[in-house]
Amino acid sequence: MLEGKVALVTGASRGIGREIAVTLAQKGASVVINYNGSEERAKEVKDEIESFGGTAKLYQCNVADFAAVETMIKEVVKEMGSLDILVNNAGITKDNLIMKMKEEDFDAVMDINLKGAFNTIKHASRQMLKQKSGKIVNISSVSGVLGNAGQANYSASKAGVIGLTKAMARELASRQINVNAVAPGFIDTDMTAALSEDAKAASVTQIPFGRTGKAKEIANVVAFLASEDASYITGQVISVDGGMAI
């Protein structure tokens, strides 16, 4: 399905990013595992991919750093020969009510979640434009679609990702580059595991399917959008949320 393709997945050392990296590798892509903090966990992802015969490389880079991202993309293309798939998954939360939210917490979330996606698209698109092909998948969130109390920074960043997706889809379509977004709902990850049981239960009541989602369910949609099966889909936001945003 993705044989011969080179994929870069940001924030791929854990959670949804890890599952996306593994799933793309299972479908034949050579995967670059981007991480910022946890080299040990990133190595575990690499080991898992290599255990079934897949190809994976590690690359440490803070996606909020414009120059560092430029260097990363250049080195990936130089070593791997191309860059066919970019998945912007790196993201953080620093939740609080707006009256209690610190300026630095707003800025940090915007820098990683939104500016990070801009940085990677800015530099990766140069190679994709030369190739006249490419698939970009940005991970947004149900919070970016609906908004969420206590997440002004996160909701704004993920809504921004949707706007960025649509703008880039229009800019890059003439070179046959697809740009789409996936908006996960309440997914079982380290991020949601930190919530209290009461908070989890309250969230589930808002989901028509009556359960949380699995990272694999997000990864499968990303893999589809990264494939030629989705060649005529661009500028779309696919909600994978059990009906939460209906």
Description:
With 246 residues, the protein is α/β, with parallel strands linked by helices. It has helices at 15-26, 39-51, 66-80, 103-131, 142-146, 152-172, 190-193, 197-204, 215-225; strands spanning 6-9, 30-35, 56-60, 85-88, 134-139, 177-184, 237-240. A seven-stranded parallel beta sheet has the order 3-2-1-4-5-6-7, with helices on both faces. It is globular, with a radius of gyration of 17 Å.
Overview in brief:
48% of the residues lie in helices and 15% in strands. It is α/β, with parallel strands linked by helices and 246 residues long.
Q: Largest beta sheet, briefly?
A: 7 strands, parallel
What is the percent of helical residues?
40-55%
Query: What share of the residues does DSSP label as strand, in percent?
Result: 15-25%
Name the average pLDDT: 96
Distance N terminus to C terminus? 31 Å
